[in-house]
Write a structure and sequence with these properties.
The chain has 986 residues and is an alpha/beta fold. Helices cover 13% and strands 20% of the residues. Among the domains are: 20-228, Ribonuclease Inhibitor (Leucine-rich repeat, LRR (right-handed beta-alpha superhelix), Alpha-Beta Horseshoe); 955-986. The chain has nine helices and 59 strands. The chain is globular. The protein starts with a helix and ends with a helix.
Length: 986
């Protein structure tokens, strides 16, 4: 036995020595020199590549097995792996390009090929890719390849890993094309496949993709997100691919109920069906998928009903995402859901925007392993239960956009793992102190905006956390600037707008935001000067509007995209160098300050600028005439300055211009012909200037998108062009305060937009990429008021203070959605149209200071929306109609200057009428009528009373019946009262 052990030991040592020798030879001589044919093939392949950073500089000499990305077999020396994936996928300097040379076919023993995250210029995958019969791993994701996938790939029967993920824009510099499949039958040839990733590959109109996948016996992981998949079979005769553990079908258009064949894949661990327009209920069959640890049905708004209680038995379930589903359940039902073993496994619960109602249950505190809880954008009411502080593993808590109220419990401060805390947009009240943050050492994102919370900390409090993002808008942090912020050294996002700070800006604040990209401290009363901020290199959005900052406008960082300093006390000129230093500006608002000087011409060259607001300043000089077509400018607001000269011709080179505000300046000259080419204009406001000449006839034909036309208080003359009525979208037409003559065009009854009643505010212009909010002054109800959000709801026609003659066109009564009509201060004649009551939405009507005659139409008493009326200084006559709406106008001045008008509220009786024209006329009855009413009542009552008693006295039968009825009624009432009294006694 001992000899046998010695021989066996010698044999093992011999085999080990041979193996070591073979390994040395393979790794040394064989592996380093590699096969000459394969080396030549690699060099030929390299010649077809574009390698700007010389990544393949090691591809020289005889030893190709040591080249970058090349690996050889330790036994045969053949090249078995070529890995040229981009090591820096978000840096296009490292991208390989060029062509895929068929010389690679000489690598006959290739098992692993990875060309991902490069850029091959949008070429198709070459057919020869299907000839690597030993290939086990193929990754062509993000390569810039595209087109129809070659069916030859189905020849790769040994392939275990196939990744063709090709998201648009996933690779910097890549000329991305879409991959397509016209027939999925070739997939069934991949009999060894274990992982398939064809996210973003177009499978539209491919009906056999599911059948092809169902033939793959070894498939474990399937990625089919963003594949344009339309309705799938709800059932299969037999499910073969039972080894699947991971299935992602998100972001498709399945549009049916949840397919039942899914519940036959018993080993399924990950299932994502989000964003698929699924409908119906969540099947209780999910309870059969015992291995499931991740279920995502989010954003299928047509799914309705509650969460099946069968899910409580999924003891492996770690992630449940049902956001965007119409669950519509009361949170009191959560107790049943979490009574099973799911409460010991669940780590992620996302139910935002699911129409949840009720109060947060105490049982939430039992989900000890929960790491993320998202119940935002629901209708949850009540307070936060103190038991929430027991979720010791919680990292993310989202309860924002609900109806929660009360105070925030101090137990929140016990969540030591918490990173994200979002409680904004609720109805929380009270104070938050140090106790709420005691153990929150890992907190990085804090959202408390839009509550009535006051953050009260000791002056020397040192926070235990380092925040990256703070949302505290409309909370109370002031009046002093919060000193605890000084220690937050990693700030990226800061929103402290409208927090009640009345203090000078501390110097340390500019160091606090040194790494921030968004800063909003607007709507406070912070004072001081803003120093040059060019060192804030990461800053992209900066809003310090509605404060008390003063001094000169500073220099800002070059990368800034949004700058809003409106409503401050800045003064001095806007230096051209400051504008030139911000080439990426998207939104610029310097309005409501005291800036002087001229408008800097470099504004013309900000190609990314969408909205420019310089209104309400002291700017003078002429408008720059350097605008060009390449600009993205959509909103241009220079109103309320001292700009003079004409409107420059280049203004309509701005091909995207929607909104042009130039009112309240000193602009002169005729209405510029260049505006004819601003075809996308929605708002044109050039009121309160010195423009002269006639309103051009081309305006109605060219600016067909106009919704607001403001030409008020200029020196325009001539007739109003009838074809202005071609502006079918116009809601506000303001031609007041000019010297226009002629009649009101009858075609003005054709403004289609003025026939529409709007209930919901909408955006007038299309500057969606900017923070600009449209606003402008509108004259109605006898005064001028600034409208912003409600501007889109108004329908107003103002032709007042001109020299218009003729009658009021009856066609104007077709404008059934009209809110305000002002024709005052003209020379209009004739009568007020009898059908004026058709304007049922009219709230303001001013026809004063004209030559109108005749009576006031009685139908005006039924204009129930009318809140302002002025008919003074006309030649109206007759009795003022009474009743309904006109009785609410008790001010006689609205009728003054009409000598032949009589009746309430004027102290002037109507001739030929015995009625008194005083407010004592109530509901159309005068005093005489009331006197006769009371006299008749006084005579009628005793007459009727004695007539009945005389009949009873003279008719014996009537008398007997009457008293018998009285006795019976009395008995019934007496019995009822006594029975009820007895009940109360018991």
């Amino acid at each position: 036995m001992a000899r046998w052990n010695v021989h066996f030991l010698f044999l093992m040592l011999s085999i080990l020595g041979i193996h070591l020798q073979e390994t040395y030879l393979c790794n040394g001589a064989l592996n380093s020199s590699c096969n000459p044919v394969e080396r030549s093939a690699l060099l030929e392949f390299k010649q077809g590549l574009k390698d700007t950073t010389n990544r393949l500089s090691s591809w020289t000499g005889e030893y190709c097995c040591t080249w970058e990305g090349v690996a050889c077999s330790s036994r045969t020396g053949h090249v078995i792996e070529l890995d040229l994936r981009n090591p820096h996928p978000f840096d296009n300097e490292w991208i390989l390009g060029g062509e895929l040379n068929p010389s690679l076919l000489s690598l006959k023993y290739l098992k692993h090929l990875d060309l991902s995250r490069n850029n091959f210029g949008g070429a198709n995958i070459p057919n020869f890719m299907g000839s690597f019969y030993h290939l086990q791993y193929l990754n062509l994701s993000g390569t810039g390849l595209g087109g129809l996938l070659p069916r030859q790939l189905g020849n790769l029967s040994n392939l275990q890993y196939l990744d063709l993920y090709n998201e648009f824009g996933s690779n910097f510099g890549a000329q991305v094309r879409e991959f397509r499949i016209d027939d999925a039958l070739w997939i069934s040839g991949l009999s060894s496949l274990r992982l398939l990733n064809i996210d973003h590959v177009n499978l539209q109109n491919v009906s056999n993709w599911l059948q092809a996948l169902n033939t793959l016996p070894s498939i474990e992981e399937i990625h089919l997100s963003f594949c344009y998949i339309e309705p799938v079979p709800l059932s299969l005769p037999h499910v073969n691919f039972t080894s699947v553990a991971f299935l992602d079908l998100s972001y498709n258009s399945i549009g049916s109920s949840i397919p039942t064949w899914l519940f036959n894949i018993s080993g399924l661990q990950y299932l994502d069906l989000s964003w698929n327009n699924l409908h119906g209920h969540i099947p209780s069959l999910f309870g059969n998928l015992a291995s499931l640890n991740n279920l995502n049905l989010a954003h299928n708004s047509l799914i309705k009903g509650g969460i099946p209680t069968s899910l409580r038995n999924l003891c492996q379930l770690q992630s449940l995402k049902l956001s965007g589903i119409n669950i519509s359940m009361d949170l009191s039902e959560f107790g049943a859901l979490f009574s099973g073993c799911i409460k010991t496994s669940l780590e992620i619960l996302e139910l935002y925007r699911t129409n949840l109602i009720g109060q947060l249950p105490e049982c939430l505190g039992e989900l000890k392993r929960l790491r993320s809880l998202d119940l935002s954008e629901n209708q949850i009411s009540g307070s936060i239960p103190a038991s929430l502080g027991q979720l010791v593993s919680l990292e993310e808590l989202y309860l924002d956009d609900n109806q929660l109220n009360g105070t925030i419990p101090e137990s929140v401060g016990c969540l030591s793992e918490l990173v994200n805390l979002a409680l904004g947009s609720n109805f929380f009240v009270g104070e938050m102190s140090e106790a709420h943050f005691t153990k929150l050492t890992k907190l990085k994102y804090l959202s408390l905006s839009s509550n009535s919370l006051a953050l009260k900390f000791e002056p020397n409090w040192l926070p235990p956390f380092q925040l990256r993002s703070i949302w505290m808008s409309s909370c109370i942090l002031g009046p002093d600037f919060p000193g605890w912020l000084q220690k937050q050294e990693n700030m990226v996002f800061l929103d402290m707008s409208n927090v009640g700070i009345v203090d000078a800006m501390p110097d340390w604040f500019w160091s606090l935001i040194s790494g921030a990209w968004h800063v909003d401290i607007s709507s406070n009363q912070i004072s001081g000067r803003v120093h040059n901020l060019m060192h804030l290199k990461k800053l992209r959005e900066f809003d310090i509007s509605s404060n008390n900052f003063s001094g000169l406008l500073p220099y800002f960082p070059r990368g800034l995209e949004v700058l809003d300093v409106h409503n401050n006390l800045f003064s001095g000129p806007i230096l051209p160098a400051i504008i030139m230093g911000m080439p990426n500006l998207n939104y610029l608002s310097l309005s409501r300050n005291n800036f002087t000087g001229t408008i800097p011409s470099p504004l013309c060259h900000l190609q990314e600028l969408v909205a420019l607001d310089l209104s309400n300043n002291l700017l003078a000089g002429k408008l720059p005439d350097c605008w060009n077509r390449s600009s993205r400018l959509t909103v241009f607001d220079l109103s309320r300055n001292s700009i003079f000269g004409g409107i420059p011709k280049s203004i309509c080179s701005l091909s995207l211009l929607n909104s042009l505000h130039l009112s309240n300046n000193n602009l002169s000259g005729e209405f510029p012909l260049s505006l004819k080419y601003c075809r996308r204009l929605v708002i044109l406001d050039v009121g309160y200037n010195e423009l002269k000449g006639e309103i051009p006839t081309w305006l109605g034909r060219s600016l067909i998108s106009l919704r607001v036309l403001g030409l008020r208080s200029n020196k325009l003359v001539g007739n109003i062009p009838p074809n202005l009525s071609l502006l079918s979208n116009v809601q506000i037409l303001d031609l007041a305060g000019n010297e226009l003559s002629g009649t009101i065009p009858r075609s003005f009854g054709n403004f289609d937009a003025m026939k529409v009643i709007r209930k919901i505010p909408s955006s007038l212009t299309y500057a969606f990429e900017s923070a600009y909010k449209e606003s402008m002054p509108v004259s109605t109800k006898g005064n001028t008021q600034e409208y912003d959000e409600l501007l889109s709801l108004l329908n107003i026609m103002d032709l007042s203070n001109n020299n218009l003659i003729g009658k009021i066109p009856t066609e104007l009564m077709n404008l059934s959605g009209l809110f305000g009509l002002d024709l005052s201060g003209n020379h209009l004649t004739g009568e007020i149209p009898e059908n004026i009551s058709a304007l049922q939405q009219l709230e303001s009507l001013d026809l004063s200071r004209n030559n109108l005659s005749g009576g006031i139409p009685s139908s005006m008493a039924h204009m129930s929306s009318l809140g302002f009326l002025n008919l003074s200084y006309n030649n109206l006559s007759g009795e003022i109609p009474l009743g309904d709406q006109l009785l609410t106008f008790s001010d006689p001045s609205i009728y003054m200057g009409n000598l032949d008008l009589c009746g309430f509220p004027l102290n002037r009786s109507c001739k030929g009428s015995e009625t008194s024209q005083t407010p004592s006329r109530i509901n159309g009855k005068n005093e005489n009528e009331m006197i006769w009413f009371y006299v008749s009542f006084a005579l009628g009552f005793p007459t009727g009373f004695w007539a009945i008693w005389w009949a009873l006295l003279l008719k014996k039968n009537w008398k007997i019946c009457y008293f018998r009825f009285i006795d019976n009624t009395f008995d019934k009432v007496y019995v009822c009262i006594m029975m009820n009294l007895r009940k109360f006694a018991l």
